[in-house]
Design brief:
This protein has 223 residues and is mostly beta strands. 7% of the residues lie in helices and 61% in strands. It contains 2 helices and 14 strands, in the order E-E-E-H-E-E-E-E-E-H-E-E-E-E-E-E. A 14-stranded antiparallel sheet has the order 8-7-6-5-4-3-2-1-14-13-12-11-10-9. A hairpin with a 2-residue loop joins strand 9 and strand 10 (151-167). The longest helix is centred in the middle third of the chain and has 11 residues, at 126-136. It starts with 17 loop residues before the first strand and ends with a strand.
Length: 223
């Protein structure tokens, strides 16, 4: 992971367990995103759940994503990933990362998946915590590798500057970290607050230059 300052185990700053809520806009629909990061005996479990609200409830659908991962001095290592997304009608995804064989295996819908891992790779949730970990420990790399249905894709990362953001959870000085998979029209920007160990207080996703997803923090509870 070129570009990340290596930090010995004894001095690496760990992620902070927490719960957070966000107000969500998906195109013209609204909802609520609940996230939680908790520790386990071997690492962490992160869950992200989106539930529609208002008129969006009439359309039904929800998103429930769970990522289990461990941390080492130079970052995050995903172990298991499970995603159900009936909002976008994506196929259910179950992936297990085996770092002894360097393979990712599982299912995407009814299709079996087996991919060879060439170095550290991430799922769509663990990448957020990798970026948070790296911001706490020297700064993010310019590229990461992400799982994408039937192959691994390189994601390019760049710093888009700092700003102040006012939310219902408080006012924060944030840094914008943007990532985009090569060949994808989706660009995701995480506006991360150092005060919250670089947890995003605002998440935005643009597709073909148009904003189609925004999540703004409304509540944060550490521990």
């Amino acid at each position: 992971m070129a570009g990340v300052i290596s930090v010995p185990d004894a001095f690496a700053t760990d992620l902070t367990p927490h719960r957070a809520q966000y107000r969500v806009k998906i195109s013209v629909l609204s909802g609520q995103l609940n996230t939680e990061l908790r520790t386990t005996e071997s690492g962490y479990i992160a869950t992200h759940v989106i539930k529609p609200k208002g008129i969006a409830k009439l359309r039904g659908g929800h998103m429930n994503v769970r990522s289990e991962f461990t941390t080492v001095a130079d970052g995050v290592r995903p172990v298991r990933f499970h995603e159900i997304d009936t909002i976008r009608n994506d196929p259910e995804t179950r992936i297990q990362f085996d770092w002894t064989t360097n393979q990712a295996s599982g299912t995407v819908g009814s299709e079996d998946v087996l991919l060879q891992l060439d170095g550290v790779s991430h799922d769509n949730v663990s990448i957020q915590y990798e970026l948070m970990h790296d911001l706490l420990n020297g700064g993010p790399s310019e590229t990461y590798v992400l799982f994408d249905v039937d192959k691994m894709r390189v994601a390019n990362v760049r710093n888009v500057g700092t700003r102040e953001i006012e939310t219902k959870a408080g006012n924060y000085e944030v840094v914008g970290i943007q990532h985009q998979k090569e060949g994808s029209s989706r660009v995701t920007t995480l506006w991360c607050a150092a005060e919250l160990d670089y947890l995003p207080v605002l998440i935005e996703q643009h597709r073909n230059g148009k904003l189609n997803f925004r999540a703004t923090m409304t509540h944060y509870t550490p521990g």
